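Researcher: Structure prediction, please.
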Amino acid sequence: MTDPAFDQAVPEHPLARSSRRGQSNALRRGQSKIHRRYTPQLCCSVPRGIAARVVARLKSHDWHRNHDLIALRRNGYVPYGKRNHPDYQPKPMRVSARSESCEALTGLSLALAANCDYNPDSDYPFEIMAPFEQIAAAMGMLHVYENGRKAYDSPLHALSVQEQLGYVIAMHGRDTDTGQNKPLRLWLSEKFFTSRGIAVEEIRQWLGQFRTWAIRNGLTESLRKRYERHLLRVERIGIDLKDKHSLRNRLKQIKRWVVSPELAGKKQAKVSMLEQGLDTLAQQDSERLDTLLDGSASNLRSLARAKSRRQNPYYQAWVAWSNKTMRHEVVALESALRQEHPGLLHASPETYYRLLLERAGIILP
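Model: Predicted structure follows.
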C-alpha cells in the first residue's frame, strides 16, 4: 500500500508527457481495471420466417470447432490498418480462441442475421439493412460516453475477423459525420451460411418460401419499392457501387449461388426464345422500322404480362374457379371490381385477383 505523503513528495518531471492511458490509470488508482463493459447478446427483435431460422442455427455454433477460424488463428489476424501493408507479417496465435472473442463473434452473427435482407429479387442479396452502429447496439455493445462519443471496438474487431474468414463482405469508407473510416455497407457471403451447417438447398428453399409468402400477401411491390428507396438513399449519401467493379462482381457471384439451377435454366430458355424472335424480326427487311419496333414492344409486353400471370397464384386460382363457373357470374364480378377500383389490374395484379377470389368466396378476407 502506497503512502500518500510519499506520492506528494515525488514531483513530476517537467518534460514528462502524460498519455491518455496514463491519465486513465491515474484516475482509477485503487480500482480494478475494466476488462469489458458489456456482454454480447442479441438485443433486437428477430423477424419471423427465414431470419428466425438462420438465427436459431447460429446460436448453436461452436467457434472452437470452426475450421476456418482455427486456420486463421494459426496464420494470425491482420488488423484493418495493416491490410494494404506489403511487409506486415501476422503473428500466429493459439488455436483456441478466448470465450470473450467467441461471444462477440456469435453476437455479431446474430445481429447481422436479424437485420439481413432475404428478398431473392434484390439486385444484391443478403445485404444488411442497418448501419453498423445499429448492429453494435443490437449486440448490446454500444457505449456512449458523457460527451456523446460512441464506441464499439469489440464489434469492429469481430467484424474484421469475419471479413478475414470470408463470411462478411464490407464496404469501408469515410463517414461524413465523424470523419473516420468505418464499414458503410455489409453483405453476407455464402460461407456465412455453409460454415454453420446450413446447406445450399435449405437456403434456396427458404428463399422460395419467402417469395411465395410475399406473393400470397401482396408484398412484392412494397418490398421492391423499399429496396429502391434504400438504393436511392445510399446513392445520395455517396456509398453506391458504381465504381466498385470487383465488389459488384463478387455480389453477382453470390446472386448466382442463390438462384437455383432450375430457375437459371428457365431464364436461359426465355432468353433464347427472345433472341430467336429478334432474329426473325431482323429478317423482315421489307417492313418499316417503326412497325418492327412497335411489334417487338407489344410482344415483349405480352410476354411480361403472361409471365407475371403465370407466377401469380391468385390468377391461377381465379382461372381454375372461372372454368367451373357460369360465364355471366365471372363477368359480373370482374366488371363490379373494375368499376370500384379502376386501374387496379395494371397497378397490382396480385391484389386484383385476390379481391376477386374473396368476393367469390374462395378465400377468406
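Model: The first helix runs from residue 4 to 9.
Researcher: Thanks, that helps.
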